[in-house]
User: Which sequence fits this backbone?
């Protein structure tokens, strides 16, 4: 839980105004959580890669700046559509979740491994725009710097 609080502070205070298009960071060095993310300034969505090395658990998140509404009825799973370098990826399920009080979707490497890795590799190898949309949300991220930032996460995880 303490990882999430530190991560929440970084993701919601840093964003598209950062000098680097992608940001990587280690939260809580004594029990590390390694992240790489980029914020779409227009939508406020964060595309985040996260690894908790103690479990070798790699997760992809799309984190919204919209507050989670406890009274709302949210879908359990989401099929986001990613368009990466003009190729559409939209068959891998993400879980809809309350992430520290914010709406988000996430997918762990262990959940649907082949679909996860296909999406992961597409983002990792992207050369142009990375677009994502689900429900009423959409965002565009830059591939510039993604590979290096994701390498930081991957190297911590495996």
Assistant:
């Amino acid at each position: 839980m303490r990882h999430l609080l530190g991560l929440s502070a970084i993701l919601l205070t840093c964003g598209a105004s950062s000098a680097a298009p992608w940001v990587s960071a280690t939260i809580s060095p004594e029990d590390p959580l390694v992240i790489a993310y980029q914020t779409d300034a227009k939508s406020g969505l964060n595309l985040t890669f996260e690894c908790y090395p103690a479990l070798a658990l790699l997760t992809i998140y799309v984190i919204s700046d919209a507050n989670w509404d406890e009274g709302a009825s949210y879908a359990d799973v989401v099929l986001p559509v990613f368009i990466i370098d003009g190729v559409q990826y939209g068959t891998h399920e993400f879980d809809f979740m309350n992430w520290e009080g914010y709406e988000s979707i996430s997918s762990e490497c262990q959940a649907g491994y082949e679909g996860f890795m296909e999406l992961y590799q597409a983002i990792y190898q992207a050369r142009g725009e990375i677009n994502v949309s689900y429900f009423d949300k959409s965002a565009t991220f830059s591939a510039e710097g993604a590979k290096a930032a994701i390498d930081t996460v991957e190297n911590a995880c495996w």
Q: What stands out?
A: Residues 2-13 form the longest helix (12 residues). Residues 2-157 form one domain. The first strand starts at residue 23 and ends at 27.
